[in-house]
């Protein structure tokens, strides 16, 4: 039987104590144990960025991290961006710019972009491209995604 451990996570502001299998990734625990399926599972080897979440404010591929390694951390998933049912400025900008095509990569794109905007109020195009370099979009909607981040940054600094 798989070994299990008790861990404490704060997920989208909610304190949780979870009993997890030691070999389960943070991605698996968020989706299967916590029930937050907005974070997408795709390559599971750290190449696509679909599973990106924020851990203590830093963007991380949750498929590459064991849940037990996140013990004690504050995690934000895409479900944590909106407040009281209101989309945040970055989500609004993605909508305005038509940045979501099939939508599969968008949660990861949003989380990487949010991590950037939380640290750099007015990022350069180079900084935006660098921050999103690990997030692949099979629909190749990169220009709309970059434009959405520029829009959100402009609103934030206005
Ligand atoms: S599912 Fe984690 S990087 Fe692709
Ligand atoms: S919008 Fe389809 S993968 Fe990015």
Shape type: globular
Give the number of DSSP strands: 5
Strand order of the largest sheet: 2-1-5-3-4
Radius of gyration: 16 Å
Structure description:
The protein is 34% helix and 17% strand. A hairpin with a 2-residue loop joins β1 and β2. The longest helix is centred in the C-terminal third of the chain and has 16 residues. It binds FE2/S2 (inorganic) cluster (2 copies).
Spell out the blueprint of helices and strands:
Blueprint: E1 4-11, E2 14-21, H1 26-33, E3 52-55, E4 58-61, E5 74-76, H2 89-96, H3 106-119, H4 125-131, H5 142-157
Parallel strand pairs: 1-5
Antiparallel strand pairs: 1-2, 3-4, 3-5
Helix pairs in contact: 2-5
The structure holds FE2/S2 (inorganic) cluster (2 copies).
Features:
5 strands; 34% helix; 158 residues; alpha+beta; binds FE2/S2 (inorganic) cluster; globular
């Amino acid at each position: 039987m798989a070994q299990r451990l008790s861990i404490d996570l704060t997920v989208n502001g909610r304190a949780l104590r979870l009993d997890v299998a030691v070999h389960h990734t943070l991605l698996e625990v968020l989706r299967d144990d916590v029930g937050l399926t907005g974070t997408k599972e795709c390559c599971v080897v750290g190449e696509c960025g679909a599973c990106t979440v924020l851990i203590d404010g830093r963007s991380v591929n949750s498929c590459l991290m064991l849940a037990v390694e996140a013990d004690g951390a504050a995690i934000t998933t895409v479900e944590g961006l909106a407040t009281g049912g209101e989309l945040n400025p970055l989500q609004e900008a993605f909508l305005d710019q038509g940045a979501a095509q099939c939508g599969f990569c968008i949660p990861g794109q949003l989380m990487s972009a949010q991590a950037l905007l939380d640290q750099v109020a007015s990022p350069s195009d180079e900084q935006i491209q660098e921050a999103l370099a690990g997030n692949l979009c099979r629909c190749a909607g990169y220009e709309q995604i970059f434009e959405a981040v520029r829009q959100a940054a402009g609103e934030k600094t206005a």
